[in-house]
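protien #1 (seq + structre)
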Amino acid sequence: AAHVHFTLVSETYGRQWAPKVSLGDDPLVTDAQRQRSRDAGDFATVVEVVESDGKQHIELKIRLRREPDF
């Protein structure tokens, strides 16, 4: 499935990889991925695409860890 990777930078928590994010309208996202995403609650990684004013948007919540990845 198509997905997006993010790197987060925080003065407190350093640089971190965020979980990859898949788009809910992608038919290649598996049922297992969708279930893990639902199980993650607010921190879901399969997100719905919303279109407004000709632009597509997603809403994503990411939990930082205390230790940086790099």
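ok now protien #2
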Amino acid sequence: AKIPSHPLDAYLAVVASVSEALAADDLAAYQSAVEGLHVPLPQESASMEIQGAVAAMEKTRHLNAKVTSLDEARAAYLPLSEAASELVLALQKERSGAGEFFVFACPMSESAFPGAPAKARWIQKKEPLQNPWFGAAMIECGAPVLVEARP
């Protein structure tokens, strides 16, 4: 069964484009993609889980396009990427949207950039997996995060 589209899908597509830019090690594409994050997030009634993920995205979405390195870009993107991953999984769990997105996790992201966590998630609009934390250095590192596997 296909999951319906959701008002947040268009915004999630912008977030996914930031992941794509980082996976391509393309700082200029990152700088251009983050400009699209400054539009207001759609507001609507939703479950606490979805509201929590949207609130986390609201706090972390204003990324600075003026970063000068991929490490800086990746570090800046991480909190938004985690919040967007949480949102996609929550929407999929409720079958209320985000069906066009995949969530992946890198199990060894701590060496990706200074201050990185041991595991970092991201969203994509299409497969195959393209790791934004390492880019070309380890483009295929990671695994899908399935909504069924969540507690």
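The mean pLDDT is 92.
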